[in-house]
Design a protein that fits this description.
CATH topology of the largest domain: Rossmann fold
Distance between the termini: 26 Å
Strand content: 15-25%
Number of domains: 2
CATH class of the largest domain: Alpha Beta
Structural class: alpha/beta
Mean pLDDT: 95
Largest sheet: 8 strands, mixed
Number of helices: 15
Order of helices and strands: EHEEEHEHEHHEHEEHEHEHEHHEHEHHH
Low-confidence stretches: none
Helix content: 40-55%
CATH superfamily of the largest domain: Glycogen Phosphorylase B
Strand order of the largest sheet: 3-4-2-1-5-6-7-8
CATH architecture of the largest domain: 3-Layer(aba) Sandwich
């Protein structure tokens, strides 16, 4: 099967679609990728990538076609909108000339949903069906992050989303709770399938040698290591983390933060302003495949999101990574992410945007014995293997892509 993956983000940017592409290739399918030049999350193009025009690249034997786009810069306002639109326009303009006709187009859609615009054009030109994997809900995510508040603009975005969904032959949702939004945008349940995210194969429990370099960054000195890993953005509710850390500044807990993002300067300033350097430490960004090594040194892994309908419906992809590594989880969020944590028996959950509740849960983790915390982690690992295991979900994806490719474009959705 010839699969075209359409995604604004791809390797060397660290998104889960990288592993999906490699997994499809491992199973014998021919994979090509249409993407932009890497500039996430820093907002600047990575070294060695100069977007003067379309370029060829490769990840192993996976062919990558890169089209020029405007870098996201600070990731705010008009600049971010131009980043989104520039990729949509560029992919639509260059894609038909760069690509061979695939059997099926798989669209990976974390924000922005505008990746669906070139997908609709390629669908029409190649007469190839589109499978659209919804990772973020629009316009709900725009409201949740405060990116857009104007009601008329939101109504226009909502109509665009409905148009994009109409030009897809199958829509995959990473959370069952997403289905309601899709139905509200005119998608029939018969065109919706649940396919959650997995985690790369390197996410697994590991044992570190005594001289592992990660040990120099994560002390093992009797203080509980509470670790947050991932994007430092508006959605992650870092305000609640800082408030709870300030309340617990004299408790035996160390807040370790791995990652980068638009909120990092704010976080650095808050740590200085509140004099939290002794209990909150920023460890910076590290390659994704080193994350299990850091997780192995954490006593508890933290996932957090703001309280918003879009985030309540979301299963944060880092949760699968945490569960896969067999570490106990503290989930400071509402909705599906909290449900998964509870169902797995993987740790403790507290309501989103409640620093007092987060502090209370941290104190409870401090009181637990290492054996009790390890049992939570083992429960989470077992739940991951039952529900999110990589090969199992890849087989499901292949079956869905194959059935859509065999069926072809569905006439009732052709504009």
């Amino acid at each position: 099967m010839k699969v075209l993956i359409l995604s604004q983000y791809f390797w060397p940017e660290t998104f889960r679609i990288n592993d999906v592409a490699q997994g499809l290739h491992e199973q014998g399918h021919q994979v090509e990728v249409l993407t932009g030049f890497p500039n996430y999350p820093s907002g600047q193009f990575q070294a060695g990538y100069a977007p003067r025009g379309p370029a060829r690249d490769a990840l192993g034997k996976i062919g990558i076609h890169r089209v020029p786009l405007l870098a996201r810069g600070h990731g705010r306002g008009g600049r971010l909108l131009l980043n989104y639109l520039s990729f949509a326009v560029s992919a639509a303009a260059f894609g038909p000339f760069l690509l061979r006709r695939p059997d099926v187009i798989l669209v990976f859609e974390p924000s922005p949903v505008t990746v669906g615009l070139p997908a609709a054009l390629l669908r029409r030109i190649f007469r190839t069906p589109v499978v659209f994997w919804v990772q973020d809900l629009w316009p709900e995510s725009l409201v949740a992050t405060g990116s857009l508040r104007n009601r008329r603009a939101l109504a226009l975005v909502s109509r665009m989303v409905s148009w994009i969904y109409r030009h897809c032959d199958l829509l995959l949702v990473q959370s069952r709770a997403f289905s309601r939004s899709l139905v509200d945008h005119g998608v029939s349940l018969s065109r919706i399938e649940y396919l959650p995210n997995s985690a790369e194969a390197f996410y697994r429990p590991v044992e570190l040698p005594a001289d592992a370099p990660e040990r120099r960054l994560v002390p093992q000195d009797g203080v509980m290591n509470l670790m947050f890993a991932g994007n430092l953005g508006v959605s992650q509710d870092l305000e609640t983390l800082v408030e709870a850390a300030a309340e617990l500044r004299h408790e035996p807990v160390r807040w370790l933060i791995l990652g980068d993002g638009r909120q990092r300067p704010w976080l650095e300033e808050e740590i200085r302003r509140r004099d939290l350097q002794g209990c909150v430490q920023l460890l910076g960004s590290h390659p994704a495949d080193t994350m299990p090594r850091f997780f192995a040194l954490a006593d508890v892994l933290l996932v957090s999101l703001k309280d918003n309908p879009a985030f309540r419906a979301t299963i944060p992809s880092k949760l699968q990574s945490y569960l896969a590594c067999g570490r106990p989880v503290l989930a400071a969020l509402n909705g599906e992410g909290a449900r998964v944590t509870r169902d797995a028996g993987a740790g403790l959950t507290v309501p989103a945007e409640r620093p007092d509740e987060l502090a209370r849960a941290v104190r409870e983790f401090i009181r637990l014995s290492p054996a009790e915390r390890e049992e939570m982690g083992e429960c989470g690992r077992r739940y991951f293997l039952r529900n999110f295991e990589r090969q199992y979900l890849l087989r499901q994806l292949v079956e869905l892509l194959g059935s859509v490719a065999a069926r072809g474009i569905t006439k009732e959705h052709t504009a």
